[in-house]
Design a protein that fits this description.
The protein has 592 residues and is of the alpha+beta class. It contains 12 helices and 33 strands.
């Protein structure tokens, strides 16, 4: 953001240096009485760097909707005796009474405490931590990543476990909210505390589903989700680095297009509303990226960015929705092939899921001719940024915050199923598998430039997976260049349950007879997998040292039969260790 842009948006995003102090505000008698203001959505910090952190809260008046004067206080101790700064902010109704401020001039690798004050009312006290100095070599960093926290399904007890961890920071890889309520995939039970959400201006999507449309709809979702005390505790305790996936706007979206039906309707205003609500509720460093409500296009926001943690780790966060090309096999084109309704029907199966591999190849060649390049996910500008950043990184570990599955997931039924099921399928073409030539281009870049120790931390799939990524599609002839660690969703229904429901009584049913059956088939047909559990909820924790990148997959139990959450939510832990210089993960299942 340039200086003029910053000045224009000063009420939106404030930057202050450590040591900044406001003038005395008089005695407590000068303030409105306690209870005049509310901090019902807690506090948050994010985007930790060696000398700065971003702080966030939402403060509303107990009555009315006027702007609120809010003071941010940051200290070295939880009693606020060693005050580092105090900065005046304004919680404006134009931004749903949210505020965000970046504090600069902080000391590297240092824990800070913070709180907000409005009148005589105080927010909870949060804690945060700066990144290690760029030239330092930390002996260890420990962080968690999480994804896919559908309010309407299952429970959030995984967040209780995560909040009890000892971590330097948390990464959120998207699906922080789900834009729909009442959709078919949300038909399961949720814990009683998660009551049904009503969207003030939601639009019907068929089958009883309602989807967010206006900025107030999306704000309603963020207010609801952030109202959960367990999510508030994670934000209060750890700085968070966030990116989005699809449900922050629309399921399986690309650019400003939704995919609820074959029409793939373009919805620029809706995309912009989703952008705004996300920007209002996330603790993002808007001095590093950009958000401009005055820009009329759907891409009025840029959120891809990177973070350095000394010489140990370089975290590269990408945006895999805002710039991606349409799915290679578009729903409308596939519907026309089958003589289906190319507008009102839903041919996601065949276009985005279980896509015959020869058909994908045919359409990829055709699309490359019309685009003048192979269709991709990051867009040309972000692609070059990713290549330059990965090539230029001198950190021991290059960690890629990657939203959708990078590993190959193929299913060969050519000799196992009757027609028309006797195909070689791309199981999930909404992920990198759906853009194979583009993925090969990026992975070849890693190989050509000898970029070593690359790990992807991934979400979206609703499963735990770990697998080696090659510079081409064939593990038998390719060169391993990275390892992809996929975490299951916090609460969303598992990938396996989606497949089991979709298989029904078709010849695919035996393949998903049990979770173990499906996992076994996928591992047998995709030898790059080191681990797979496709029927899971939970989160992942990474411990990073110069010698190894070690991941703990924390799987939790599902909702009890009576609708309550399990008293002891942890089901099992799986440890996967990747040694520096290696692309061979070592798996230990059921560890303590």
């Amino acid at each position: 953001m340039d200086r003029r842009g910053f000045i224009r948006s000063a009420a939106w995003f404030t930057v202050a240096g450590a040591g900044t102090m406001v003038a005395g505000c008089g005695s407590s008698d000068d303030f409105p009485p306690s209870g005049t203001y509310r901090f019902t959505h807690g506090v948050a910090s994010g985007d930790p760097k060696e000398a700065s952190i971003v702080f966030w809260t939402r403060c509303v008046p107990a009555s009315g909707s006027a702007a609120v004067e809010v003071r941010l206080e940051v200290a070295l101790d939880s009693a606020f005796r060693e005050l580092v700064t105090a900065v005046e902010l304004a919680a404006q109704p134009a931004h749903d009474h949210t505020v965000r401020a970046k504090l600069t001039g902080l000391v590297a690798n240092t824990r800070y405490y913070y709180r907000f004050r409005a009148g005589q009312d105080f927010s909870p006290v949060g804690q945060s931590k700066t990144a290690p100095a760029a030239a330092s070599t930390p002996s260890q960093m420990r962080f968690a990543w999480m994804t896919c926290q559908d309010w309407s399904i299952n429970h959030w007890a995984a967040m209780e476990l995560l909040a009890a961890e000892e971590l330097d920071f948390v990464v959120h890889l998207g699906d922080y909210i789900y834009e729909t309520v009442g959709a078919a995939f949300q038909a399961g039970a949720a814990e009683p505390a998660h009551t049904k959400i009503t969207l003030p201006n939601g639009l019907a999507a068929g089958g009883g589903a309602v989807y967010a449309n206006t900025v107030e709809d999306y704000r309603t979702l963020y207010r609801t989700y952030r109202g959960d005390a367990r999510l508030q505790e994670i934000h209060r305790k750890f700085p968070m680095i966030v990116i989005w996936d699809d449900h922050e706007f629309s399921d399986d979206c690309w650019q400003d297009h939704q995919t609820y039906d074959n029409a793939n309707r373009q919805e620029t205003a809706r995309r912009r509303n989703a952008n705004q609500a996300w920007a209002e509720y996330m603790p993002v460093d808007w001095g590093d990226v950009s958000f401009d409500l005055n820009k009329s296009s759907y891409d009025n926001i840029r959120i891809y960015r990177d973070f350095r943690f000394g010489t140990l780790m370089h975290l590269v966060m990408t945006d895999e929705r805002l710039y991606r090309d349409d799915h290679v096999v578009s729903e409308a084109a596939y519907a026309q092939l089958l003589q289906h309704d190319p507008v009102n029907g839903d041919d996601s199966v065949g276009a985005r899921y279980f896509v015959p591999q020869p058909l994908l190849q045919q359409f990829e060649d055709r699309t490359a001719g019309s685009l003048g390049r192979r269709p991709g996910i990051l867009g040309p500008t972000q692609t070059q940024w990713w290549k330059d950043t990965m090539k230029g990184s001198s950190a021991t570990w290059k960690v890629w915050g990657n939203e959708v599955t990078l590993n190959r997931m193929w299913l060969d039924l050519r000799t196992q199923a009757p027609a028309p099921y006797n195909q070689l399928y791309i199981v999930n073409a909404d992920g990198w598998d759906g853009y194979p030539s583009y993925r090969a281009e990026l992975m070849a870049h890693l190989k050509t430039n000898n970029v070593r120790n690359v790990v992807a931390i991934t979400g979206d799939l609703h499963a735990f997976q770990c697998g080696v990524v090659y510079d081409n599609q064939d593990p038998r002839s390719g060169t391993p260049v990275a390892v992809d660690f996929v975490s299951a969703g916090i609460s969303s229904s598992s990938f396996y349950k989606y497949l089991r429901a979709g298989a029904g009584t078709t010849p695919l049913a035996p393949l998903v007879a049990t979770p173990q059956t499906f996992d076994g088939v996928m591992r047998m047909q995709n030898p790059a997998f080191a681990y797979a559990d496709h029927d899971a909820q939970g989160y992942a924790v990474a411990t990073v040292t110069p010698a190894a990148f070690t991941v703990l997959f924390n799987k939790v139990k599902p909702l009890n039969a009576d609708g309550s959450k399990p008293a002891t939510p942890l089901a099992k832990r799986t440890r996967i260790t990747l040694r520096a210089g290696s692309t061979t993960p070592q798996v230990e299942d059921n560890v303590s």
